[in-house]
Structures are given as structure tokens and as C-alpha cells.
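FIELD: query
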Amino acid sequence: MLGIAESYRETKSTLAGAVVRIDRTVDGFVFETCTVGGTDATEAIRSVFERLDREDVQLVMIAGIAPAWFNIVDLRELRETTGLPVLSVSFEESPGLEAAIADAFEGEERARRLETYRAQPPRHRVETEPPVFVRGVGCGNERAATVVRHTTETDRPEPVRVAQLAARAADWFRR
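FIELD: result
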């Protein structure tokens, strides 16, 4: 699996892609940046996948749907461009991001983000400890839940946990 997570400061977010095998062995990293408050996260994740150039990756798992301050990820577009199932995993129950997007942006910036956000599949609760919330494209809810449960040993699925550690380290190093 390719886990994707980010760490940001100021205007650039560091995205980390971590290849994690089903036995939880970490097997590679790749990094990219996207704009904080921008609309380029989907393209940056696609770039991570392409630069990784690994035919053995069978699924993409992203920490959240709106990295880098509402830089909304289009899961359907990633599914189309990678040919792989794509999961977005979030860690808090919430009513969603529509109100927060509406408060943070105006005009075309708001409309573009809301259109992308509304086009994504709904979140489904997956019982882990603590529970997580998953959106999936390219696989059913049961398969997505099985993958998440199988890869979760701590509070987060291993692919995104490892990617988060790598993103933070790379972001700190870039300073």
C-alpha cells in the first residue's frame, strides 16, 4: 500500500508517500509538496504515485481528505489516474467540512472546493480503537474496512502513520 500524509508550515506542505507491505514492513518513501490553502493536493499525490514507480502497490491510503488547509483531494480522480483503489482515512467524527470551507473561502475558491468535496463518497465509520472514518473509491465499504482494520495496530493505519512520521521529519529537515 502507498500511505500518504502531510506536514505543513507557512505556504508549503510536505507530502510523504510511504510504501508499507501488508506485513507492515516499510519498503520505500517518496516526497512532494503542495500549496497550503491551494488546490494542488490531488496532483501532488498523483506525482508521488508516478515518481514512486512501483507496480507492486495495490492501494492508496490517504490521511484525510483536506490536507494543507482545505486543499481538497479528489479521490475519484486519483482512482482514475492510478488505476488503484483509493481510501481516505480521517480520525475524528464530524459533520463534515462544508461549513468550515464556506467560512474560510469566498467566491470561486469556495465553489471549487465545495464542488470537489461534495463529489467524494461519504465517510463510513470503521471500528478500530479508536474508530476511524473511511471514504473509498474502487473498493466496497467492507473491503475498505477490512484493509483498515488489518493495517491498524495503534491509533492509525500503518501506511498513513508511517507517512505522517516521514512527512514531519522531511518538513523539519526543510527548515
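FIELD: remark
The first strand starts at residue 2 and ends at 9.
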